[in-house]
Amino acid sequence: MIAAVQQYYGATAAKRTQSWRSMVNNIQSQTVSEREILSRVNIFFNRLRFIDDIKLWGKEDYWATPLEFLGAGGGDCEDFSLAKYFTLRELGIADDKLRMVYVKALTLNQFHMVVAYYPTPAAVPYILDNLEGSIRLATERSDLAPIYSFNGQHLWLMRERGRGELAGKASRLSLWNDLRGRWDVNRLQKPRINLDR
């Protein structure tokens, strides 16, 4: 994996990927609470840079795999959220506790994606967001208006600030299907720009 990233993106990207693998291995070798896992993953990925898809990938909307995100050294909100989601899943956080939530960031007046963590099915979720370093309850994030959410299996329409109404399978999302089809080290994409310069 690290060798593939180095071949496509260079030595600095390989170091980022090695740091990611070290973080994952470190967490897996310890007895760590889910909240601590969330915090470490959120902090790790929030160090990367935000950059628009059109500038980075030459497309209006492109969901990068975690390796592409680390390789490029940055990405947009979907890339931050997806890297966190896949890493949390690898670290043993159950899929039914996680959702990627497509929201309207009200203060920015733009669409945005975050990760929601539900400690229990009826709990108010905690939000992992690249716009804000701290993990906060959704009820403390009046700046976000949820639209829809999904995880590896399901898609929900957000009728109110709760869990939403089940709207079918996540496979209804074409960008999700495309991402899952590319989640392979042999299918890395090259960004249009080099962020490590």
TrEMBL record:
InterPro entries assigned: Transglutaminase-like_Cys_pept
Keywords from the named record: Nucleotidyltransferase, Transferase
Domain of life: Bacteria
Any coiled-coil regions, as ranges: none
GO MF, any single term: nucleotidyltransferase activity
Protein name in UniProt: Sulfate adenylyltransferase
Organism: Oceanisphaera avium
